[in-house]
Amino acid sequence: MLDVLTKRKNTVTPTDRVAPKRPTGDLSLVLVLGLAAMIVSMMQTLVVPILSIIQSDLGTTTANVSWVTTATLLSAAVFTPLLGRFGDMHGKKPTLIGVLLLMIAGSVLAATTTSLLWLIVGRVLQGAATAIFPLALSVLREEIPPAKLHGAMALVSGTLAVGSGLALVAAGLLTRGSDPDYHRVFWLAVGLAALALVGVVLRVPSSRSTTGGRTDWLGAGTLAALLVLLLLPISQGHEWGWSSARTIGLFVAAVVMAGVWVLVERKVRAPMVDMGMFAHRPVLFTNLAGLFLGFAMFSQFIGVAYLAQMPKELTGYGFGASVLRASVEYLLPTTLISLLAAQFGGILVGRIGARFTLTVGAVFGVAGFAWLTLAHDTSASIILAGLLIGVAISFGYAAMPALIVASVPHHQTGIANGLNSISRSVGSAIASAVITSLLASKTIQHLPAGAPVLPAESQFTLSFAIAGVAFVLIVAVALVGLTRGAAQEYTVEKKAAATDGAAADEAVAETAGVTS
């Protein structure tokens, strides 16, 4: 322990010294950051209900139009860690403003073009919005007093689930009628991003502590290449074939690039990602929990959306719902309960710690998916199970930022939360690939001539069961991986770097439940 103490004492930097919290108008700041964060999830789901409209209007194929979603996923993987680190180095407010300007530019381009290529370019620019969430959490850590921090982070995190649900409803409303126009959906994105930009300019204070220094472009480039090589086959594998040379080759290349990235970050003088932080047990296991949560959340979203739209007269199951009805009746209740549960999640983090809050939420998730697995033949079952899953998602979003904040130095908050966001995105991408493959692998035979290919009901049952297992794994991660002793060495290191903000950081760590 004394060796650790001595080592850390020699590495304290001026940027670790954080001035006391200043009054900023806590509620207005949280609301502005919540609105900005809501845009993150809206950008990921806004186009899902309108892909068929885009395909028809642009006269393209299903494989080509899928790049409208894939491009944003890959862009987010590249932008999020880079901009999270950039915010730590050069200030959160100017970085947030830059991200929102990129978002507006991409949305305007998507709203005005009639070319698939330029639409994809617009979606790439929209992908930068994913960096808003880790940047928002960094602002909260810097500006909100410790006693209010967990509730503020929980509320901002809860808007992610709200954004997904509202995006589906808004897209359905804006494209209903006999002559739907998908461009309206992107004009909505322009308006929301502009509103968030005004809020950030007026209410978000300038950062009082930045690390400065040079950007690790080599580390950023190799990490971006790694994420693209990983996510591209995950998102396109069902189109290319999981055993195709292209899919397998990209997975192998991703493994090789992972090794290259680790070597680069260990060698450069000022790495974008501190490998010690990345491998630190609380951070590592929180990211693993994020992967499972992203998988489970997207499984419920896509599974229920597809199930509700199945024509019962042909399949013997489903509800024959339109996209709008599926969004409002079956998914919106999950969204609303997530927002309501967010504050309870923040309270639980303060009362029992983030680790046990994550556990409690995961138990709700197990119960919800068990219900869906065993009984999804009535609207009531779908909705009530969705409420349980909504609580699970909300508690998970409340707990993970608290675990990250308690486990990393102040100047690494942005990049650490950025990596956690990426872990959830990877989980969502895996869920999309798994469910798409499952639904296509077993279909109903002897349908009437001209009927579309429809999945067997057993594939939905299996999908929900797998998502339930993901929540079981979160319970295991929380109880076994995120032990109180896991951060003991880090706690000693942090105490060695006694600063003006040390007491506040200690309070955050103690209530997160990862220190002893």
How would you describe this structure to a colleague?
By secondary structure, the chain is mainly alpha-helical. The protein has 2 domains: 2-9 and 23-205 and 272-442 and 454-512, Growth Hormone, Chain: A, CATH 1.20.1250.20; 216-271. It is 77% helix and 0% strand. The protein has 22 helices and no strands. It has helices at 2-9, 26-45, 51-58, 62-65, 67-90, 92-112, 116-126, 132-143, 146-174, 183-203, 217-240, 245-267, 275-279, 281-309, 312-315, 323-352, 354-374, 379-407, 413-441, 457-481, 488-496, 502-512. Helix 16 (323-352) runs antiparallel to helix 17. The longest helix is centred in the middle third of the chain and has 30 residues, at 323-352. The radius of gyration is 22 Å and the shape is globular.
CATH level 3 topology of the largest domain? Growth Hormone, Chain: A
Order of helices and strands: HHHHHHHHHHHHHHHHHHHHHH
Question: Radius of gyration over alpha carbons?
Answer: 22 Å
Mean pLDDT: 83
Q: Note the main sheet.
A: none
Count of discrete alpha- or pi-helical segments spanning 4 or more residues: 22
Shape: globular
Label the CATH architecture of the largest domain. Up-down Bundle
CATH class of the largest domain: Mainly Alpha
Quickly give the structural class.
mainly alpha
* CATH superfamily annotation of the largest domain: MFS general substrate transporter like domains
Count of spatially separate domains: 2
The proportion of strand residues reads under 5%
Distance between the termini: 14 Å
Helix content: over 70%
The parts where pLDDT drops under 50 for at least 5 residues are 1-20, 485-507
